[in-house]
Write a structure and sequence with these properties.
By secondary structure, the chain is α+β, with helices and mostly antiparallel strands. The protein has eleven helices and 26 strands.
Length: 504
């Protein structure tokens, strides 16, 4: 502690301290520094130990009355927060300087060295330096309370698709993981025909809705329910529900378009195959190789349904094939696919090998099929399909068989698959037993469709070393190592997960 005084002149003499009598330069208090220290304490009323509340989950500090801020140790933000805790007790003194003293990071103590000034007896200015100790106390913030509760939510996004296959949902899950949109969700529930995402704020739910509308063809509805109303402050508490309905069409579905829609897409045939579903529905005409894209708005104005479920597909064997070259399209025709080859094939059901029954059809899989190959398709000739547009078509325009995809040995493909996908942590309810088969279908689609897997993070499976041999290679498509990512995990020197800041 010391006092401030004017500089002494050469003619100025010393005086005696009024308390202890030692010679000192003149000052307004007429007292030496030692006597002032014992008489006056300008830091009186300023607490020397203060509690600072810290949330271990999100590593934020409480800034009264109710806000939580992110501060690094010995940062300017943390210094400002500590001084605000002392501000109410420092109204009668002047703050000169403040700085941190080193403490062990895990000691739950923060020490602040504070320098203050105050005018004391007869106008003398006294300066004093002291240390304030801040004790870190754990307190969970409201946001972390809601996350841990799992049941508290303000908004929910209900995603639904009325189909028997979940290929679109598996693709959507990978997009959400890639863009890390699942991190803000309090809970994710997988139920029949869809997934529910629960959020603590309406803004996070709206962000998910905007992402879905840009990612898959869908339509949305919004509703809200009043929970409480404060008549004094005129504040309302709502729970919001966003309903997202994805078009009921999946990859490898056979669809029948309305005549009006088929004409608007370049006079393509009404019976088409869905090549893939991204932000639009990609259709291909197996008779002409014409391709078209249908977005969500166009679909809901001219809806069409899938004619066949994956369980209704049958296995055929190729008996003969003939590539069609220089196919001429009619007037007003749209774009043709360059990745497919048009061919005429004769096929026979593997279940009817003891008969002479064969079927003739055109297919877009001419670049894949050879005599003796197995292929999955739908038998229109021996099936009863009830569809509004198909029933009005001329029987001569309805093909006997529509081939969907080439068939490979699944067990061999699984055995040599050296990659994996990540999954979201979600509650599962009402899971069907065929979900594993549908998931394998999705993995095979990624192997076969390069355009589809460009939007998916594929990780190398280090625990699975495929065995190569000449007998198990049937020409099935595979994913190269260049397209795989390393599944990294950040660990500390001990091999365990890194420790959080200021934990026990």
């Amino acid at each position: 502690m010391e006092y401030m005084q004017a500089p002494a002149t050469s003619s100025q003499g010393n005086i005696l301290c009024c308390t202890c009598g030692i010679p000192i330069p003149p000052n307004p208090a007429n007292m030496c520094v030692s006597c002032l220290r014992t008489t006056v304490d300008i830091s009186e009323g300023i607490p020397k130990q203060v509690n600072l509340h810290f949330c271990k989950q999100c590593e934020r500090y409480l800034q009264p009355p109710a806000s939580w801020v992110q501060c690094a140790l010995e940062s300017r933000e943390l210094l400002a927060l500590c001084l605000k805790k002392l501000k109410g007790n420092m109204t009668k003194v002047r703050l000169i300087d403040a700085g941190f003293l080193w403490t062990e990071p895990h000691s739950k103590r923060i020490k602040l060295k504070v320098t203050i000034q105050k005018e004391v007896m007869n106008g003398a200015i006294l300066q004093q330096v002291f240390v304030v100790e801040f004790v870190i106390q754990g307190q969970m913030c409201d946001d972390c309370h809601r996350v841990e509760a799992k049941d508290f939510w303000n908004s929910v996004v209900q995603v639904r698709q009325k189909t028997s296959h979940k290929k679109t949902f598996y693709y959507l899950e990978q997009l959400i993981l890639k863009h890390k949109l699942h991190q803000n969700a309090l809970n994710i529930k997988e139920i029949h025909e869809g997934i529910d995402f629960y959020y603590a704020t309406k803004q996070h739910a709206q962000k998910m809705v905007d992402f879905l509308q840009c990612t898959v063809p869908c339509r949305s509805k919004t509703s809200q329910r009043l929970i409480s109303h404060d008549i004094h402050s005129n504040t309302f508490n709502y729970k919001s529900t966003y309903s997202i309905e994805i078009v009921p069409v999946c990859k490898d579905n056979v669809v029948c378009l309305s005549p009006r829609l088929a004409q608007s897409l370049g006079n393509m045939g009404q019976v088409c195959v869905c090549a893939r579903v991204t932000s639009t529905i990609h259709l291909i005409d197996p008779n002409t190789l014409q391709i078209a894209e249908v977005d969500g708005g166009t679909y809901w104005r001219n809806p069409f349904n899938s004619l066949v479920s994956p369980r209704q597909l049958e296995e055929f064997i190729v008996m003969d094939t003939d590539i069609i070259r220089n196919q001429k399209l009619g007037a007003g025709a749209g774009i043709r696919s360059n990745k497919h080859t048009l061919a005429e094939v004769w096929v026979q059901k593997t279940s009817e090998m003891d008969t002479a029954q064969q079927y003739h059809c055109r297919t877009h899989l001419g670049h894949l099929l050879n005599i003796g190959d197995l292929v999955q398709g739908f038998d229109f000739a021996n099936s009863n399909v009830n569809d509004e547009f198909l029933n009005k078509m001329s029987p001569s325009h309805i093909p006997d068989v529509v081939l969907i995809k080439k068939s490979y040995n699944r067990s061999k493909r699984v055995k040599r698959r050296n990659w994996k996908l990540k999954e979201m942590d979600k509650d599962r309810e009402g899971m069907a037993p065929e979900d594993e088969r549908q998931y394998q279908d999705f993995l095979e689609d990624l192997e076969e469709d390069e355009a589809l897997r460009k939007n998916v993070n594929i990780f190398r499976d280090a625990s699975k070393i495929p065995v190569e041999s000449d007998t198990d290679d049937e020409g099935a498509p595979r994913i190269s190592l260049m397209e795989m990512l390393e599944d990294l995990s950040l660990t500390d020197a001990t091999g365990g997960e890194g420790a959080d800041m200021l934990t026990e």
